Amino acid sequence: MTDWQKVIDGGFQPPEGGLTPALIAELSEALRSPDPVLRDEQALPVLASWIPELDQAARRRLAGEMAARFSDPEIQARTFAPLVLNLILDQGDFDGSWLAAFTRWYPAETDLRGYDPELGWLHAVAHGADLLGAFGRCPQADPAPLLDVAAARLLAPTGYLFAHQEDDRLGYAIALTLTRTELSQAQSVGWLDPVRADFAAGEPGPVPAYASNTMRTLRVLYILADRGVRPEWNRGEPIPLAHRDAVRQRLADVLTLVSPMAG
After folding, report:
1. pLDDT tens, 72-125?
2. Are the C-beta atoms of residues 104 and 70 closer than 8 Å to each other?
3. Contact 132, 106 (CB under 8 A)
C-alpha cells in the first residue's frame, strides 16, 4: 500500500511527509490504471481533496501531465484527464495549451463507452463535457470556439447511443458557456448552423446514433435556456443565458426539422 492509499481511511489528510512531487506523481499514474477501484474510487477522490493544497507550480505541472494524456493510448487515461483539469481550473489556474489539447481531443475521441464491465466508468463525453463547461465559464477562454467544439462533438459519427446521461452533461456544459455575456447573439446561435444543415440533409430511415444524441442534447439545452442554468448543478441561483430568447428560438427551429410535431 502506498502512502497516499493509507490516508483514505483517515479523512484524506496528507501524510506526514507532505505533498511531495513523488507522491503526486504516484497519484497521477494511478489515474491511468485500468483498475476502476484504484483509479476512480481511490486516486481521484484523494487527488481532488489535495489539489487545493498544492502550490501553483505543482498544479500547473499536474495540469500539463493531464493535457498530455489526451493523446494517451489508454482510454481510461484520456477520459480521466478532464476531471483533474476541471479541478485545477476551479483553483483559478489556466493555460492556453491545456485548452488547445482538450479541443483537439474532445470532438475526435471515438471510444465513447460510458461504462465498461472491466474498466469501470470511462464516460468520454460526460467527463469532457464537464471540462467544456469549466472552460466555458473561464474568463481567460474565448467561449465562441467552445460552442463550435460542442457542435463538432455532437455531429461526429458514432454508433454509440448515449446511455448514461451524457446528453444532460453536454447540454449543461453548453448552457454554462452560453451564459458568457461577451458572446454576441450571432455567436450564441451560429454554432447551431452545422447542426441545422445536418438535420436538413437527413433521409427517411433509422435515426443514426449521433443524430439521436444531438436531438436529446439540444432538448436538454432548450430547458436550460428557458429556466437558466445553475453553476454547480443543483446549487445556487440559475444564471440566464446571455441571449436566452434567441437561443430558444434557434433551438426550436432546429429541432422542428426532426420533430415537426413539436411546432
Report:
1. 999 999 999 999 999 999 999 999 999 999 999 999 999 999 999 999 999 999
2. yes
3. yes
Q: How many CB atoms lie within 10 A of CB 245?
A: 11
Gap between the Cα atoms of 23 and 114, Å rounded: 29
Residues with Cβ within 8 Å of 5's Cβ and at least 6 positions away in sequence, in order, are 42, 46
**C-alpha to C-alpha distances, 29 to 41, 85, 92, nearest whole angstrom:** 14, 15, 24
Place of cell 481567460: 140
Confidence of residue 8 (pLDDT cuts 50, 70, 90): low
Q: How many CB atoms lie within 10 A of CB 244?
A: 17
- 92: Cβ contacts below 8 Å, ≥ 6 apart: none
Tell me the three cell numbers of residue 157. 459519427
Residue 14: per-residue pLDDT: 67
